[in-house]
Design a protein that fits this description.
GMP Synthetase, Chain A, domain 3; Uridine Diphospho-n-acetylenolpyruvylglucosamine Reductase, domain 3; five-stranded antiparallel beta sheet; alpha+beta; Uridine Diphospho-n-acetylenolpyruvylglucosamine Reductase, domain 2; single chain; binds flavin-adenine dinucleotide; 536 residues; 20 strands
Amino acid sequence: MSVPPKRRLKHWGWGYEDSESSREETLQAAAAIRSHLGFGEGEVESPVALADIGLPEARLAPPAGLAPICRTDPYERASHALGKSYCDVVRGFRGRFDHPPDVVAHPRDEGEIAAVLEWCESAGADAIPFGGGTSVVGGVEPRGERPAVTIDLRALDLVLEVDRVSRSARIQAGATGPGLEEQLRPHGLTLRHFPQSFEYSTLGGWLATRAGGHFATGPTHIDDLVESVRAICPRGAWESRRLPASGAGPSPDRLLIGSEGILGVITEAWVRVQARPGFRASVGVGFHSFEAGAEAARTLGQSGLQPSNCRLLDPGEAAVTGAGADGRALLLIGFESSDHPLDAWLARALECCADHGGSPTGEPALRTSTDTGSASGKPEGAWRNAFLRAPYLRDTMVAAGILSETFETATTWDRLPGLVRDVREAAVAALAEVCEAGVVTCRLTHVYPDGAAPYFTVLAPARRGAECEQWQAVKEAASEAIASAGGTITHHHAVGRDHRSAYDRQRPELFAAALRAAKRELDPAGILNPGVLIDP
Ligand SMILES: Cc1cc2nc3c(=O)[nH]c(=O)nc-3n(C[C@H](O)[C@H](O)[C@H](O)COP(=O)(O)OP(=O)(O)OC[C@H]3O[C@@H](n4cnc5c(N)ncnc54)[C@H](O)[C@@H]3O)c2cc1C
């Protein structure tokens, strides 16, 4: 059993307490962001300190047998009260924790998870599985109606077994991205699943939300990497068989993947791992328009080349991230392999881009594990740095009065141009109405043979105290446009509570009835994460 990490995460926002920016650093960063964007005014605010937060009284106390693994102090309750959407960060920053869990449990094994679920059932409490708490859709926030026990899985953080022959590993659900990669490294292996929230999110959270990693093509969803899953449900253990593939009826692990904590607590999974890549190649390619870049991305997606990175930035996104400032759309292309040099793949990709009017913005970066050449100083390196910094910068933007949020979807290629146009127009119009200014940028984060995933970033002047209402108005307009244009309400951010109404419209009604029936069977008292995916 591993010891919980000594470093504490902030009770709001992104990152660890000990790496929080000083007031001076925040002021400097806020000034730089404001001058770059041209908006964001007034005083730079400071977050409400933990000691100054008034939490509602806890309505529940753990039974003596569970007391050693349960905590009820303000840090534990506040830091498990919200996810990490923009609105969550704003509320945490202002000390607004309206519905914190009454108790936070830290089980160390499946027996303790079963005991916590049993206690929740008898006490009439909601039970909320919690991985890294990076949900951006209200997936970990208690409803407030009934007492709530949050079940933090991060004490289950081990790689338990590695099967080198089959290239798979059995990993506990609470392992974070860095934690599991560190344990796979001595075996020369990697899971190669890199969501932007990688640093803090967990394998269990990825499975529960069907997370998308940041490899742009090929097996990029966690779904693709799963051999089997094990969960503890209120009515017992559920474990699918470990197989490379199976035609034996509907798959038992597919029902758990994406179940968002409503059917059971995922405790571990066998996942497909692979050799660490030793060869890498990357290049940035400029296009006169986003549409031309999208055509090139489609060609690459359908070519069988399977680039690991194939990310199209519109000119605004390229400028904001410092990846390119020449007014062109920028396609970032990358390949990696543990087996072979990639020059031929890159050369063919450049030919495909040239067919659509694309030209490289500089020399390609070709690297091997022994050659330390890097993509830094190149557009792909600049974009990667901005991508990794973004969640930290968002905390500063909240202090500086800047609304900063993202939303994403996916659609087939035939509908893509119309969807991007309509959604952008809807978001810009809503911004003009509720924020009086702002920018909407777009990138394609994932490219498939039959479609792509457009990802939108919204930056605008925020009205202090009304940020969540402002964002809600923009989000509603964008969601309506996405639904009308034939996109999904979420490509990889999950459903939670925030996407419920759009998800309800998207899924077949008979499927909803079947899901409700499955929940009744596994969780008859309806304690697990009520309100997520289906009605309580
Ligand atoms: C800055 C930022 C960047 C992000 N980037 C990405 C991205 O690139 N790709 C992506 O897919 N998502 C992304 N997300 C969203 C989020 O990180 C993912 O949904 C992630 O999979 C959540 O993992 P977690 O461990 O933090 O889960 P949590 O947030 O703790 O939980 C998410 C949901 O899963 C349930 N859950 C968690 N653990 C378990 C378990 N063991 N058993 C059963 N249910 C469980 C919870 O009840 C909740 O409903 C991002 C979020 C942020 C804030």
